[in-house]
Amino acid sequence: MKQKVSLGIVCLARKTYDYHAAEELYKNIIEDVKKIENVEWTIIDGLVIEKEEGEAAGLKFASSNLDGIVCISGTFHLGHLPLLIKRHCDVPMLLWGLPELPYNGGKIRLNSVCGVNLNASNLYKSGFNDYQVLIDNKINEDWIDALRVIRALNRSHIGILGFRADGFFNVGVQDNTVFDNTGAIVDHFELSDVINLEVDEKSIIERKEQVKTIFDCSSITEDQVNKVALLSAKLNKFYLDNNLNALAIRCWPEFARDFGISPCAAMSILQSEDKIFTCEGDIDGSLSQIAHKALGGETPFLFDFSQVDFEEDFALFWHCGVAPCNLWDGVCNRSLDTYFAGGKGVTADFVLKSGDVSVLRLDSAKGKYRMFIQDAKAIPMEKLLKGTYLKAKFDRPVREVLDVIVENGIAHHSSVVYGSYLKPLRIVAKLKNWEIFE
User: Which residues of the chain have pLDDT under 50?
Assistant: First the structure.
């Protein structure tokens, strides 16, 4: 399900043009936009023509806690109107121009595009860049989806359990920089807060049955199965009790030592239940997954850009065994293994399903945020490795994709989700003034 957003919509006009036609078009637009998934609308009924009406629209929007405003140029109109609205409600705007109607008596009827041009110029020269332009009969749902991402990030509560993994300096963040750029709040917890958490016996028993149903456990001991079930119950309770949108975990080197297993298998299970767990204390990785989820992406997860084959032109998206178990290819043996952490790893082992995938890394560097995005296709492969992985083909040479990553110092983790989400993510980067790499 996509992130819910709250939007305002208004139609501007001037009586020297065919404002009656604009009003009819506006009524049809209202009926169309009401059908869009998970949007709460604040609607200005009728046309806004006079300055006083623009002022009133701005005040109404200001009281509605909006994520964005759809500002339709029904006809050409006074340049004051969008500025009056923006003054009271400073949120991103979609400047929507309507295609011109057939001429009637030699007179242009709407002059809507010129109204959009006027509004864009006025906003830009007033110091505002958070607008998007549309000339069409239908709303741009990619713009709405971009606002879903911004809202989800802005309302996120991310926990970090422990710290970043040892030596992973490139995934470290400054909490205030995270808040300044995204609005997300980061809270720190100790590993012991989960390890020592009490959970009821019933939830442990249910989790144990779940583990044995999902995975072939023949390569691990009964004690390790019990530990996976116990940790799944603990992490799930901790996540819910603390009202988290994501939990980044310092999953090595101490976790296996102190609990007896690494958290990989438990994280695989819980991620399949629409929760976000991030390896190695990577908070920017959590933000990337939250963004993908806001767009309606199913169970996003982190991977390493682990292998490139320049001859066969593919990349291996791999991690040690933490991908959501619901993304299994349905062909290979979905199992648990202990190859990692000196036999205490207890990782999920399977090939991920084939299909179109979207890659995203929200990445902080030098006090600023930027965005790396790509589309790829996961293609079938045999189960040849431990861990969870897929073989990815791009629409250009893999060498070029790797060059973008390493030449710009992008961190080695990215979120991947099935589907394609490049268009709304490009709009997010524009609205947030983030540099984009693709």
Answer: none
pTM of the model: 0.96
Our measurement of the distance from residue 155's CA atom to the centroid of its chain's CA atoms, rounded to an integer in Å, reads 12
How far apart CA 4 and CA 118 sit, in angstroms, is: 31
296 and 158 housed in the same domain: yes
Q: Are 102 and 46 in contact (CB under 8 A)?
A: no
Domain that holds residue 326: 152-437
Spatial separation of the C-alpha atoms in residues 197 and 239, rounded to whole Å? 12
Side-chain-side CA neighbours of 95 within 13 Å: the count stands at: 27
Decide the pairing of beta strands 435-437 and 185-189: unpaired
Q: Are residues 330 and 192 in the same domain?
A: yes
Q: Rounded to whole angstroms, how far apart are CA atoms 184 and 55?
A: 32
| 263 and 394 housed in the same domain | yes
DSSP, collapsed to helix, strand or coil, labels residue 324 as coil
Tens digit of pLDDT for each residue in 279-289?
Answer: 999 999 999 99
384: three-class secondary structure by DSSP: coil
Domain count, the chain: 2
Contacting residues for 202 by C-beta, under 8 A, at least 6 apart? none
User: Considering the domain boundaries, does residue 11 fall inside one?
Assistant: yes
Q: Are residues 232 and 348 in the same domain?
A: yes
Is 126 in the same domain as 209? no
The DSSP letter of residue 311 is: T
Q: Is there a single domain that holds both residue 229 and residue 357?
A: yes
CA contacts within 13 A on the Cβ side of 273: 13
Query: What residues contact residue 290 under an 8 Å CB cut-off, 6+ apart?
Result: 152, 153, 156, 158, 184, 245, 246, 276
Exposure string for 363-388, b = 16+ CB within 10 A, e = fewer: bbeeeebbbbbbbbebeebeeebbbb
Give the CA distances from residue 299 to residues 88, 283, 326, 375, in Å, rounded to whole numbers and listed in that order: 38, 17, 8, 17
Report yes or no on 145 lying in a domain. no
Query: CA of 211: how far to CAs of 65, 222, 256, 280, 381, in Å?
Result: 43, 11, 19, 23, 25
My answer on whether 319 and 183 are in the same domain is: yes
- Give 310-328 pLDDT, tens digit per residue: 999 999 999 999 999 999 9
104/169 same-domain check: no
Domain presence at residue 70: yes
- Is the previous residue joined to 380 through a cis bond, with omega within 30 degrees of 0? no
Residue 147 forms part of a structural domain: no
